[in-house]
Amino acid sequence: MFYFRAVYKKADIYLLDDPLSAVDVKVGKHLFEKCIRNYLKEKACILITHQVHYLSEVDHIVLMDNGNIIIEGSYQDIQASIFDFAKVLGPLKGTTIENESETNNINNDGAESRLVPSQCGSNESILSSKFKALTQKPNEKPEYQSYKYESKNVLISYITACGSTYNIFWGFFMCIVILALIVGGDFWLSFWVNQEVYTFNNPKNTFDNSTSEPHESSNLLLWLNNYHEYYVIIYSLFMVALIISVIIRSAIFVKITMKASINLHNRMFNSIIRTTMFFFNTNSSGNIMNRFSKDLGAVDEILPDIFLDTLQIFMFICGTVIIIGLTNIYLLIPSFIVSIIIYKLRAYYFYTSQNVNRLEASSKFHSYSIYTFIHL
């Protein structure tokens, strides 16, 4: 794909990093004769290759090793020299001939036989293989391989990317206010229901047998029973305050998540434009595009909803535990056991889901790479 793009570019100078190694012998010969020698004959063409049987058809040859020029000149000059090319090119390890039977049919007799290394042919370019051999880390893992990371650090990084701590503080404060309003509304509704039950079971004119006076403990309930509208008003105030608080919290949350998305994108972009070439040689363009498209798309669209749902569920659980503790403290024991079980199940699910998403991302970056080659 790079080869076709370079030819269609119609440039004055072409640098071809071993494009013939990616095809078989017949196709490579066709490309060399029809494209390099014919179509690009009036252009300055620099061909990097290990296929030495093409050297007799080039104008100038430069042999380099570890960044140093060993010898250069025309094919006739190299033939006349006494330099041992097999000794220099022979140490290239890990190479295989893609079609050995066809390659062996090429005539390499006479002085040309001294130009053929003991092992030739490669599915990778010389520059890329040399660079990878020098720079690749031994413990480097493929993209799709599973690994664990500290989710707490990721959460802290996302929170710090939200920007001002002032907005973060008010966001959490509004969550606490909403929790208090929900718990308060539930308590008031419970009190209202208990009062109605008491009124139904105990008429107003019930007197104590010894004093012939109403029960003093029920004076407040009897007074509230005469004012049913106060129950409705107070409960309505709880609901109105809850709705307003939810709207305020949602507005703050949208502002925080948008700021986090912008900051994360800016960090990634600034890191990309300031990184070294080692990063681009060890990470494909499709993988980089996948990070900017799929991952940032998840940060913009999926993560805010999940984060808000998680926060709401956490607050709901806290409110439920508080109500259970105030109602019957002994019920906290099974609640604690259930919480431990849920946490363990969450850990198993999170690890599996992370690996599945990573496999999905690794299977897509090849498509992104092809898309990049075609449209760039």
From TrEMBL:
Transmembrane spans: 168-193, 230-252, 313-343
Keyword Nucleotide-binding: yes
Domain of life: Eukaryota
Keyword Transport listed: yes
Database matches in SUPFAM superfamilies: ABC transporter transmembrane region, P-loop containing nucleoside triphosphate hydrolases
Keywords noted in UniProt: ATP-binding, Membrane, Nucleotide-binding, Transmembrane, Transmembrane helix, Transport
GO molecular function, one term: ATP binding
ABC transmembrane type-1 domain sequence ranges: 169-364
PROSITE patterns linked: ABC_TM1F
InterPro entries given in the database record: ABC1_TM_dom, ABC1_TM_sf, ABC_transporter_C-like, P-loop_NTPase
Listed GO CC annotations: membrane
Name listed for the protein in its UniProt record: Putative multidrug resistance-associated protein lethal
Taxonomy of the source species: Eukaryota, Metazoa, Ecdysozoa, Arthropoda, Hexapoda
